[in-house]
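Render Rhodanese-like domain-containing protein in 3D.
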Amino acid sequence: MKTMTTEEIINLLDANEDLNVIDVREADEVEQGMIPGAVHIPLGSIPERADELDKTKEYILVCRGGVRSAKAGEYLESQGFEVINLEGGMMAYDGELEFK
């Protein structure tokens, strides 16, 4: 599985790149802020919601520290999706936040 640093994602966001970010944290964690444009799909919901995703797109997965997003990535890769795990997760991310 590919990985990306938080510095890399911040640079892509600053360049207004079209990113597909999935936040796999729980609802109470997401309330503390998400990466702008991210879609919230809790880790436990990934298998039943995978059909909402497009196999022609690459997804950046994020959680609090990088472990849950790696688990989600392993599952999605096994289903034929292209994924990137955000190293260090939201604990390492110091960019702009979006509140939903």
